[in-house]
Automatic annotation (TrEMBL):
<dbReference type="InterPro" id="IPR001932">
    <property type="entry name" value="PPM-type_phosphatase-like_dom"/>
</dbReference>
<keyword id="KW-0175">Coiled coil</keyword>
<dbReference type="Pfam" id="PF13581">
    <property type="entry name" value="HATPase_c_2"/>
</dbReference>
<dbReference type="Pfam" id="PF08448">
    <property type="entry name" value="PAS_4"/>
</dbReference>
<dbReference type="InterPro" id="IPR036513">
    <property type="entry name" value="STAS_dom_sf"/>
</dbReference>
<feature type="domain" description="PAC">
    <location>
        <begin position="87"/>
        <end position="141"/>
    </location>
</feature>
<dbReference type="InterPro" id="IPR013656">
    <property type="entry name" value="PAS_4"/>
</dbReference>
<protein>
    <submittedName>
        <fullName>SpoIIE family protein phosphatase</fullName>
    </submittedName>
</protein>
<dbReference type="InterPro" id="IPR035965">
    <property type="entry name" value="PAS-like_dom_sf"/>
</dbReference>
<dbReference type="Pfam" id="PF01740">
    <property type="entry name" value="STAS"/>
</dbReference>
<dbReference type="InterPro" id="IPR003594">
    <property type="entry name" value="HATPase_dom"/>
</dbReference>
<dbReference type="Pfam" id="PF07228">
    <property type="entry name" value="SpoIIE"/>
</dbReference>
<keyword id="KW-0378">Hydrolase</keyword>
<dbReference type="InterPro" id="IPR036457">
    <property type="entry name" value="PPM-type-like_dom_sf"/>
</dbReference>
<dbReference type="InterPro" id="IPR000700">
    <property type="entry name" value="PAS-assoc_C"/>
</dbReference>
<dbReference type="InterPro" id="IPR052016">
    <property type="entry name" value="Bact_Sigma-Reg"/>
</dbReference>
<feature type="domain" description="STAS">
    <location>
        <begin position="561"/>
        <end position="646"/>
    </location>
</feature>
Length: 646
């Protein structure tokens, strides 16, 4: 039997093309060595709005995706004839209004063959699986939260690894640092990789990345000891050779430390001078501002304990230059350099440069943070990783000038101070936790200066606030008034400000004098390092309101109220009045949701205490609700007001 098929006419062909145009997934057909885009459907045009698509090379059509490996995938399929499949790739696509659309895509790219079997072009087909991916990520995050306690008790080795590595990195003037540590696998024993950043009293910063041979408890324990030896010597002012010599002696005594490798650099952010030694370790990668990335020459130092020397080389970094230290796990990835054109070191240099310049994913992070996070994501997602990976990035940046504020002695000025202090701390690079602590501490001191220093007269003078970051990464803030000191009277609604401040910061000093009072707080800044089990772990930032509002919620037989925004000296009186009014003087049970409170000052704490006392006197329950980790929950835990996290 012979089966024949009728060749469609022009009308039928148009109908078929119209049907293809209605397919509910992305279709792109590229022709020739330049991969000119010759056909696409409506779904494709919807993803790339406002673009001149047809007849242009795919490299130009999706130029904004060049750092995200899509263009390379199309050309790899044309070159090799082998299909490429991607599953749930996170993608940022530039939009006509200048924003970036985040989309997750699952796709297949296959060769397009002509009738003779020759390679004519490439066909790509993909699905927008953004909702599926976000649902998956949300489910994984919830599963992680529920099993965290179980994992901590089960995986003692990984917990040990995290304890031995620095939880935070110093925030330093003229230098932005970031680090990521990715475990080889959630179920494998921890390894011997480590990193460290030591801010020295002489103003220089020591950057360390090292690798102990092996895995498990022994490697982790030795890693911790080596890190401690180097940290102690560097903190004491030792040079590179002296510090490595001390670690070398340790490796000569402890068998498990034999042949450990270290890259140690000393950097002066003020001058840009860099000294470094590669003791058996891969050489640092330099990503200059506006130029191609390059690897610094190795110094031919030997692994620890092997009886060699530790030569030192010098470089100079300009402002904007970024230095990346790493372990060989990022180079020894399965499938790295798979197309035969790029080896793993070249891949690392290209991806790190794209991340530093913001040409890859458009995450709102510093260049150092992007290099440490996006380099992992973009390289690991294509082939996985067989070993632990450690990345430590440092970028020379302009130092942020001191903050100087003079404000009138009136409570209404407090919120402006918080905003300006938060903006300055963000520019310095402070973490959300430190911004929270310093905003509260400075707010309390400023309130005291206004109310005590001037005897309650808001017209008399100004309050001066000065904040600076020293070379060891410690912020010092002084709050100065020029009034006569008045010791605060013992009142039920007062007296908690200085006590709260002392709990929030490292040190507090109040110095009354004939010309006024100077209150000084000192607090070291640190940004968390990313210690990851998976490359796609991420934090969620929830913004808080800036204006105070109070809203009544449905509550049946009880009063239910939600507070949003700052509860401070300017709003505390309204909070007390409104809560007592809505609970009829404390006689009706009340639930107060504080999850949306962005700032809870001591004046607000006093107001809540007074409301709680009224409810206690008439035995009507008062329940304070605050989300875990929220500003209100942190403060309530310090001042002894019980709260729930419902």
């Amino acid at each position: 039997m012979v089966t024949s098929v009728n060749v469609p006419g022009a009308g039928e062909l148009d109908a078929m093309m119209a049907a293809v145009d209605q397919l509910p997934f992305i279709v792109a057909v590229c022709e020739g060595p330049d991969l000119l885009l010759v056909a696409c459907n409506a779904a494709t045009r919807a993803v790339l709005p406002g673009r001149d698509i047809l007849g242009r090379p795919i490299r130009e059509v999706i130029a904004d995706l060049a750092g995200q490996q899509y263009v390379d995938a199309y050309h790899e399929v044309y070159r090799t004839g082998e299909p490429v499949i991607g599953r749930q790739w996170r993608t940022h696509i530039d939009q006509p209004d200048g924003s970036a659309l985040e989309m997750f895509a699952t796709f297949t790219i296959v060769p397009w063959l002509d009738a003779d079997g020759g390679r004519r072009g490439v066909i790509g087909a993909g699905f927008d699986v953004t909702e599926l991916a976000r649902t998956r990520l949300a489910a994984e995050a919830e599963a992680d939260r529920l099993r965290r306690r179980y994992e901590q008790s089960r995986d003692v080795i990984n917990a040990l690894q995290r304890e031995l590595l620095p939880a935070g990195l110093p925030v330093l003037p003229g230098l932005q640092v970031a680090a990521s540590y990715l475990l080889a696998d959630a179920d494998t024993a921890a390894g011997g990789d480590w990193f460290d950043v030591v801010a020295r009293p002489d103003g220089r910063v020591a950057l360390v990345v090292g690798d102990v041979v092996g895995h498990g408890v022994t490697a982790s324990g030795v890693m911790g000891q080596l890190r401690a030896v180097l940290q102690e010597r560097l903190d004491a002012g030792a040079g590179i050779g002296e510090a490595l010599a001390a670690a070398d002696r340790f490796a000569g005594r402890v068998r498990a430390a034999y042949a450990a490798t270290v890259c140690l650099a000393l950097f002066d952010a003020a001058t840009g001078e860099l000294s470094y030694c590669t003791a058996g370790h891969p050489a640092p990668l330099l990503v200059p501002a506006g130029r191609d990335a390059r690897y610094l020459p190795g110094t031919w130092g030997v692994p620890l304990g092997t009886g060699g020397t530790f030569p030192v080389r010098t470089e100079r970094l300009a402002e904007g230059d970024l230095l990346l230290l790493y372990t060989d796990g990022i180079l020894e990835r399965p499938g790295s350099g798979r197309d035969g054109t790029l080896d793993s070191a070249v891949e690392l240099a290209h991806v790190a440069a794209d991340a530093a310049a913001g040409r890859a994913l458009r995450d709102p992070e510093t260049a150092a943070e992007r290099v440490c996070t996006q380099t992992l994501e973009l390289l690991v997602r294509t082939g996985g990783h067989a070993d632990d990976i450690t990345l430590l990035a440092a970028q020379r940046v302009p130092a942020v000038p001191e903050l100087m504020i003079d404000l009138p002695a009136e409570a209404a000025a407090l919120r402006g101070v918080r905003g300006r202090l938060a903006a300055w701390l963000a520019e310095v690079g402070a973490s959300e936790h430190d911004v929270f602590a310093l905003q509260h501490a400075v707010g309390e001191l400023t309130t005291n200066a206004i109310e005590h220093g001037y005897g309650g007269d808001p017209r008399r003078d100004v309050v001066g606030i000065r904040a600076g970051l020293d070379r060891t990464g410690t912020v010092e803030v002084t709050v100065t008034d020029h009034g006569g000191w008045q010791a605060p009277q013992r009142q039920p609604a007062r007296g908690r400000g200085l006590a709260l401040t002392a709990q929030l910061v490292r040190s507090l000093r109040v110095e009354p004098g004939a010309d006024g009072t100077v209150a000084t707080v000192r607090h070291p800044l640190a940004r968390p390092a990313r210690l990851l089990v998976r490359f796609d772990e991420a934090a969620v930032v929830v913004p808080h309101g800036t204006e105070f509002t109070i809203a009544e919620l449905p509550g049946g037989d009880e009063a239910r109220v939600r507070l949003d925004g700052p509860v401070d000296a300017a709003s505390a009186r309204e909070v007390r009045r409104e809560l007592l009014r809505r609970s009829r003087g404390g006689t009706v049970p009340m639930t107060v949701d504080l999850s949306g409170v962005s700032h809870l000052a001591s004046a607000g704490v006093s107001a809540l205490h007074q409301v709680a006392e009224c409810h206690h006197d008439v035995e009507a329950p008062l329940v304070l609700v605050a989300a875990t980790g929220s500003p209100a929950q942190r403060i309530l835990g310090l001042v002894g007001l019980p709260s729930s996290t419902g």
